[in-house]
């Protein structure tokens, strides 16, 4: 059987697991629909994306399926590797945003930011003037020109650029004792939200409605309350995540590993316990990812016990109301979890100082697939570009392979 025919049949088998659009003939159809979401691609006969994107997506889908129908060629197991090299800086990099297959931004210690516009073949490295002592733990970008960085520590600052990093404007400054921001997320190019450690017993939440040009604090009485010693982790800028138009979640650690949720853009909150490690200040939820409004995964553990896989992942199927431990957790402490592509949200990669793990079922089971001491990982929406950053300016590009 030709590989292309086997692929299409595997995609039909896989859809029941992945809950994704499927091809019928040469067109891409959503489950339960009869009309195509996208017209046929004139190059490859599949969805209306370029051939390389169709091929990359096909590789991810067929290996994630784990098998084919009776009489078909067996599916190839997921395989890949990190191609690691320096990025042109020795800064510790924890912020990463992969905008598309070509454009990505990263940020880190020493007021450092990086930008690539050619799929990371070359990084432009810079330092924001006046912020040389800032540690930018998170970064968000909308394209090659527009980005913003969030600093951890005192004072808490946010900078924005509209010219590809040539100039930066400070759009937020907070020198209140105890302030420490950990992550920022955006629903779209204009509406965003950031979370910081508790001040006076409540987590500090700020929001923007103009792309980060101005920020407003959520009123104190509307901020979620914290346990004594409870805080967030700024390990990768992913302890907070958003979905849809108004849903947002953030994870915590210390005395408890909890996940807070808001369905109204951060004006009101609920909270749930998770089974991730907790009890010490080094333990808890470090990263969150939601496949949709209901299905989500949390990863973390203990950063002082990196190789220990105990209680390093949990999943939810009810939007974060309840959490259960992953059946087979990652192989150690993990700082960041993301989907390989928007079309395959159940195929996840998690990274940490002790390695990389893959889940093909939305976070319930994991297996190690590589090394590399990375803090953060990101993929373009089409899955064509995967990048990771870490300590000492470490930069990795994920290369999919078929074995």
State the CATH topology of the largest domain: Methylamine Dehydrogenase, Chain H
Return the CATH class of the largest domain: Mainly Beta
Strand content: 35-45%
Number of helices: 2
> Low-confidence stretches at least 5 residues in length (pLDDT < 50)?
1-77
Return the average pLDDT rounded to an integer. Answer: 82
Tally the structural domains.
2
Strand arrangement within the widest β-sheet reads 4-31-30-29
Helix content: under 10%
Observed structural traits:
8% helix, 2 helices, globular, 403 residues, 4-stranded antiparallel sheet, disordered N terminus, mainly beta, 2 domains, single chain, Methylamine Dehydrogenase, Chain H
List the topology elements.
Layout: H1 3-18, E1 22-24, E2 27-29, E3 36-38, H2 51-65, E4 79-86, E5 93-98, E6 104-108, E7 112-116, E8 124-127, E9 135-141, E10 147-152, E11 156-161, E12 169-174, E13 181-186, E14 192-199, E15 202-208, E16 216-217, E17 240-243, E18 247-251, E19 258-262, E20 270-273, E21 283-290, E22 296-302, E23 313-316, E24 324-325, E25 336-341, E26 344-352, E27 355-359, E28 367-370, E29 374-379, E30 386-390, E31 394-401
Antiparallel strand pairs: 1-2, 2-3, 4-31, 5-6, 6-7, 7-8, 9-10, 10-11, 11-12, 13-14, 14-15, 15-16, 17-18, 18-19, 19-20, 21-22, 22-23, 23-24, 25-26, 26-27, 27-28, 29-30, 30-31
Helix pairs in contact: 1-2
């Amino acid at each position: 059987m030709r590989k292309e025919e086997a692929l299409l049949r595997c995609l039909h088998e896989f859809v029941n697991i992945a809950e994704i659009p499927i091809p019928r003939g040469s067109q891409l159809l959503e489950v339960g629909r009869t009309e195509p979401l996208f017209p046929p691609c004139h190059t490859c006969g599949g969805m209306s994306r370029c051939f390389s994107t169709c091929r990359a997506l096909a590789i991810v889908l067929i290996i994630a399926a784990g098998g084919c129908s009776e009489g078909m060629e067996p599916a190839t197991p997921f395989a890949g590797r990190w191609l690691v090299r320096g990025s042109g800086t020795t800064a510790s990099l924890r912020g990463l945003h992969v905008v598309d297959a070509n454009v990505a931004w990263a940020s880190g210690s020493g007021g450092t930011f990086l930008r690539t516009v050619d799929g990371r073949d070359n990084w432009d490295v810079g330092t924001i003037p006046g912020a040389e002592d800032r540690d930018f733990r998170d970064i968000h970008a909308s394209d090659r020109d527009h980005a913003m960085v969030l600093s951890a520590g005192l004072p808490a600052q946010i900078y924005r650029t509209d010219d590809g990093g040539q100039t930066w404007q400070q759009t937020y400054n907070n020198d209140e004792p105890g302030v420490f921001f950990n992550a920022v997320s955006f629903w779209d190019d204009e509406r965003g939200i950031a979370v910081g450690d508790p001040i006076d017993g409540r987590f500090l939440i700020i929001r923007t409605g103009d792309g980060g040009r101005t920020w407003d604090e959520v009123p104190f009485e509307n901020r979620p309350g914290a346990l004594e010693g409870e805080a967030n982790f700024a390990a990768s800028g992913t302890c907070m995540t958003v979905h849809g138009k108004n849903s947002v979640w953030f994870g915590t650690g210390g005395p408890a590993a909890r996940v807070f949720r808001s369905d109204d853009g951060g004006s009101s909150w609920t909270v749930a316990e998770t089974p991730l490690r907790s009890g010490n200040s080094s333990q808890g939820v470090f990263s969150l990812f939601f496949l949709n409004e209901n299905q989500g995964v949390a990863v973390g553990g203990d950063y002082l016990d990196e190789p220990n896989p105990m209680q390093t992942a949990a999943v939810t199927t009810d939007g974060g109301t309840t959490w259960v431990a992953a059946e087979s957790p990652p192989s150690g402490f993990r700082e960041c979890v993301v989907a390989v592509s928007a079309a395959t949200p159940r195929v996840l990669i998690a990274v940490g100082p002790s390695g990389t793990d893959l889940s093909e079922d939305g976070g319930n089971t994991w297996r190690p697939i590589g090394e590399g001491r990375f803090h953060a990982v990101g993929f373009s929406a089409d899955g064509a570009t995967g990048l990771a950053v870490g300590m000492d300016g470490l930069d990795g590009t994920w290369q999919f392979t078929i074995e």
